[in-house]
Write a structure and sequence with these properties.
With 322 residues, this protein is of the alpha/beta class. It has helices spanning 12-23, 38-42, 59-69, 82-87, 89-109, 152-171, 194-204, 223-235, 255-265, 288-294, 302-316; strands at residues 3-7, 27-32, 49-53, 73-76, 116-120, 175-179, 183-184, 209-211, 217-222, 245-247, 251-254, 271-273. The chain has eleven helices and twelve strands.
Length: 322
């Protein structure tokens, strides 16, 4: 088994990636500015994960941590997300672009040690949904479709895809980038997608909730499936890779359908849904290459993900189980 360094390893997705890797027998190092082990503890792996405080914008810290831990694989997740990038654009470039460059440069420098960098691009690299209207795949967006982000966050991820390509073609750095959408599950920060969290958490805790966007489709990707996707990206054999960037998603359902699923899971849930508002995201991603090359298949459909999410929340708040 391998030693894997996970940047952003104490964050929401990072903690689940760390737990998934531990469950599959790997040694894990969480490299993060935050050394808060709360999520790791709640996932039952705090004693199994080495937490190293570090900043991805510090190239020396990145190289030193990879070298000293003996990591042969890196899962790079550390980033400023959409709201953070909007509020502090200069920091977004330093963290998202500069930090990713530091990871690739460390992999180049330590080429005798580092076998693969699996890293987080994003579905945010795609253009707004209207750009794909009328394509010949019934709305499904492939990795070869137009990349034209309309957010700074998406632009940083697009740039990272270009620099990843250069590091692979010119320096031989093995990498696999994933374009996930919006992950949901216990212990997530709310951020700009707070309504997705509240749609599940408020009914789970016996609170009513009103939500817009009822007729619009969202990719409901449970966080444990995101985690297994990064593990697969980190360890897929080179000979199996037909590309270096892959879409990954969960189950595409409308907000109304998700609300109905919550109501079926939580008896007595009070959710009102309207069709007002427009979501800017492109969520209907084709994942054929990820299935064929990485062996990625979501293990959680929407009901299973919501059921586990609700069960965790109710137990933590001392409420009756489902």
């Amino acid at each position: 088994m391998a030693t894997v360094l996970v940047t952003g390893g104490t964050g929401f997705i990072g903690a689940y990636v760390a737990a998934d890797l531990v469950e599959h027998g790997h040694d894990v190092v969480a490299f993060d500015l935050s050394t808060d082990e709360t999520r790791l503890a709640k996932l039952g792996v705090a004693d199994d994960v080495e937490v190293v405080r570090g900043d991805v914008t510090d190239p020396t810290a990145v190289v030193r941590s990879i070298r000293e831990t003996g990591a042969t694989h890196v899962v790079h997740l550390a980033a400023l997300l959409t709201d953070g990038a909007r509020g502090n654009p200069r920091a977004a470039l330093e963290v998202n672009c500069g930090g990713t460059n530091n990871v690739f440069e460390a992999a180049r420098t330590l080429s005798d040690q580092v076998e693969r960098v699996a890293w987080a691009s994003s579905a945010a690299v795609y253009a707004p949904p209207g750009r794909y209207a009328g394509n010949d795949r019934d709305g499904w967006v492939t990795e070869d479709d137009l990349v034209y982000p309309d957010t700074l966050y998406g632009a940083t991820k697009e740039y990272n895809e270009h620099q990843a390509q250069v590091y692979h073609e010119e320096y031989g750095v093995s990498h696999v980038g994933l374009r996930p959408t919006v992950a949901y599950g216990p212990y997530r920060e709310t951020g700009g997608s707070a309504f997705l969290v509240d749609l599940i958490e408020k009914p789970a805790l016996d609170e009513s909730f009103a939500v817009e966007y009822g007729d619009q489709t969202i990719d409901w990707q449970y966080v444990r499936d995101v985690a297994q996707a990064f593990r697969r990206a980190a360890f897929a054999p080179e000979s199996d890779l037909s590309r270096r960037i892959y879409n990954v998603r969960g189950e595409c359902q409308t907000i109304r359908e998700a609300a109905e699923t919550v109501e079926s899971v939580v008896p007595g849930a009070e959710i009102s849904v309207s069709d007002e508002g427009d979501l800017p995201w492109t969520q209907t991603l084709d994942t054929t290459p990820a299935r064929e090359d990485l062996g990625y298949e979501p293990e959680y459909d929407l009901e299973a993900g919501i059921r586990e999410y609700v069960s965790v929340l109710r137990e933590e708040h001392g409420l009756d189980p489902l």
